[in-house]
Design goal:
The structure holds two protein chains of two kinds. Chain A is an all-beta fold. Chain A has no helices and eleven strands. In chain A, the strands form two sheets. In chain A, strands 2, 4, 5, 9, 10 and 11 form a six-stranded mixed beta sheet that branches. Chain A has a five-stranded antiparallel beta sheet with strand order 1-3-8-7-6, with no helix packed on it. Chain A is globular. By secondary structure, chain B is mainly beta. Chain B is about 0% helix and about 50% strand. In chain B, a hairpin with a 2-residue loop joins strand 5 and strand 6 (about 55). Classes of the chains: A mainly beta, B mainly beta. The interface of A and B includes residues 49, 95 and 98 of A.
Chain lengths: ~110, ~110
């Protein structure tokens, strides 16, 4: 079992729709959870961090964490073509581990 | 400005040669990480360090070595034992264990074997 799992996609959504990205993790002692966006050939940039159960909103982005289910998600509202990228889920327990990423394509 | 700097941006290595990738941060972060990314793949952990003078192997440490003599610096050496080193290498830093802070990345080093 991989430590952090994501659906590789691609996930295709029309412009203006909601994109939903999901991630599960195996280490129950994980304490910090992150979503990064990565454009081709570039380094990852942080979008959201979440540390406690529930929802956290920042602009068009909402992160959701459920530690009991070992599940973290990212919702992107009003998706734009510029949101097209690979989204990486990262989980920190003793170490910081990344999922393989989900490719998002927003069609105009 | 605070940040994390990787150098060089591009690096070419001949067969059988050791090369060292630099990673420097002025964020006063305790923890530093090295990842490798192959085309179309996620980030795989090579080595990480939670504190000065200490580091641990990640999932793909074979053929790599690191040192952590200063808090600000975490250089990665790709040795001749690494048979397929061509990849994008990323360094990240964040606060120590038990602290809820984000990890920040350098701009990456693209290593190519020639």
């Amino acid at each position: 079992q991989k430590e952090v799992e994501q659906n590789s996609g691609p996930l295709s959504v029309p412009e203006g729709a909601i994109a939903s990205l999901n991630c599960t993790y195996s280490d129950r002692v994980s304490q910090s959870f992150f979503w990064y966006r990565q454009y081709s050939g570039k380094s990852p940039e942080l979008i959201m961090s979440i540390y406690s159960n529930g929802d956290k909103e920042d602009g068009r982005f909402t992160a959701q964490l459920n530690k009991a289910s070992q599940y973290v998600s990212l919702l992107i509202r009003d998706s734009q073509p510029s949101d097209s990228a690979t989204y990486l889920c990262a989980v920190r327990g003793y170490k910081l581990v990344f999922g393989a990423g989900t490719i998002l394509r927003v069609k105009s | 400005d605070g940040g994390i700097t990787q150098s060089p941006k591009y690096l070419f290595r001949k067969e059988g040669q050791n090369v060292t990738l630099s990673c420097e941060q002025n964020l006063n972060h305790d923890a530093m990480y090295w990842y490798r990314q192959d085309p179309g793949q996620g980030l795989r952990l090579i080595y990480y360090s939670q504190i000065v003078n200490d580091f641990q192997k990640g999932d793909i440490a074979e053929g790599y070595s690191v040192s952590r003599e200063k808090k600000e610096s975490f250089p990665l050496t790709v040795t001749s034992a690494q048979k397929n080193p061509t990849a994008f290498y990323l360094c990240a830093s964040l606060q120590g264990l038990g602290m809820n802070t984000e990890a920040f990345f350098g701009q990456g080093t693209r290593l190519t074997v020639v």
